[in-house]
Design a protein that fits this description.
Layout (H helix, E strand, L loop, with lengths): L1 H4 L5 H8 L1 E5 L2 E5 L13 H11 L1 H7 L13 H13 L15 H6 L8 H10 L2 H16 L8 E10 L20 E9 L4 E9 L9 H11 L6 E3 L7 H10 L4 H16 L1
Parallel strand pairs: 3-6
Antiparallel strand pairs: 1-2, 3-4, 4-5
Helix pairs in contact: 5-7, 9-10, 10-11
Length: 273
C-alpha cells in the first residue's frame, strides 16, 4: 500500500540517481552509462578532466603560458589551450580537424572553458608565441609531470623514427628511408622511459639527420634538466656509442656504475673499431 502511494520518479530523476558523479573544472557532471544509446565520442573526457582538476596540471599549464592578449574582445588563453588539447585528444592531425570538437559543449564545460575557439584562432595563437618563451614553458610542464615517477633507477631509451613525407614541408630532405627509398622524410629522435614508454622528449629533424649524433645535443639538454633524476642507463643504437656521446653520457650519469661501465664499453668498442 505504501509502495503504491509513493510518487513515481521521472526518467530524468531515475537517471540522475543512477548516474556517476564526476567533479571537473567546470563543475559537477553526472555520467550515466547506456550501452544501447548513442553518445558523444568524447564522453570519457570528463574522467580525464577530473584528473586534471584534482592534480591541477591543466591550471598550472594555462597559468604559465606565455600567451597574452591585450584586446578585451580576444579569446581567453584558457579557451585557446583547451580547444587545442581537446583537438589533440580527439586525434586531430591538422588544424582543420579541430572543427570536429567545437560542437562538444560537454567537453568544453569539463575543462572550464567559456567556449571553443576556431582552428584559425588556435593557429594564430601558436604563431604569436615566441619560441624562446614557449619552449621552456612546455618543457617545464613536461618535466613537472614525470619527475616524481623517476625516483627509482630507470633506463632512458633513445631511437630515431623515419617519417616519409609526400608534400613540400620544411626540412623534407632525401636521406635514409628504408620504407620509401628516395622519398623525402623527417626524422623523430625520441627519448622515453624504458618499459613504461613514457616519452620525455622528441626532436624533429630533417631527413638527412637520422644518425644518433644529431640527437646528442637534445640528449645532453634532457640530462641537464633531469638533474638528480638522471637515468641509470642510456640505451640506444650502436652508433650512439661514439666517443663524444659516451663521454657526455658518462659525465652526466657519473653516480651510476651501470651507465659508467656501459659508456666505458662503448668507448672501448669505438677505439678498437
Amino acid at each position: 500500500m505504501d509502495e503504491a502511494n509513493e510518487p513515481k520518479k521521472s526518467v530524468l530523476a531515475q537517471a540522475s540517481k543512477d548516474a556517476m558523479v564526476v567533479d571537473t573544472m567546470g563543475g559537477r557532471v553526472h555520467v550515466r552509462w547506456d550501452e544501447t544509446a548513442q553518445a558523444t565520442p568524447h564522453g570519457q573526457i570528463v574522467f580525464f578532466a577530473e584528473f586534471l582538476a584534482t592534480a591541477g596540471v591543466f591550471d598550472r599549464w594555462v597559468a604559465d603560458c606565455p600567451l597574452h592578449y591585450s584586446s578585451p574582445n580576444a579569446s581567453r588563453p584558457r579557451d585557446v589551450l583547451g580547444t587545442l588539447m581537446l583537438g589533440i585528444l580527439a586525434g586531430s592531425k591538422r588544424y582543420a580537424h579541430i572543427a570536429g570538437v567545437r560542437g562538444d559543449a560537454v567537453a568544453a564545460k569539463a575543462l572550464g572553458l567559456r567556449s571553443m575557439v576556431s582552428e584559425d584562432s588556435v593557429r594564430r595563437a601558436l604563431s604569436a608565441m615566441v619560441p624562446a618563451a614557449s619552449q621552456p614553458w612546455m618543457r617545464n610542464a613536461l618535466m613537472a609531470s614525470v619527475r616524481d615517477a623517476l625516483d627509482r633507477p630507470w633506463v632512458l631509451d633513445m631511437d630515431a623514427t623515419i617519417k616519409p613525407l609526400y608534400g613540400r614541408q620544411e626540412g623534407a630532405e632525401i636521406g635514409y628511408n628504408p620504407h620509401k627509398p628516395g622519398r623525402p622524410s623527417h626524422v623523430l629522435h625520441t627519448f622515453w622511459v624504458g618499459n613504461l614508454r613514457l616519452v620525455l622528449d622528441a626532436v624533429l629533424s630533417s631527413g638527412k639527420q637520422h644518425t644518433s649524433g644529431h640527437a646528442k645535443a637534445a640528449m645532453a639538454r634532457l640530462l641537464d634538466e633531469l638533474g638528480d633524476k638522471a637515468p641509470a642507463l642510456v640505451r640506444g643504437d650502436w652508433c650512439a656509442g661514439t666517443a663524444a656521446t659516451a663521454t657526455k653520457t658518462s659525465s652526466m650519469c657519473a653516480s651510476s656504475a651501470t651507465c659508467a661501465s656501459c659508456c666505458a664499453c662503448a668507448r672501448r668498442a669505438t677505439s678498437s673499431g
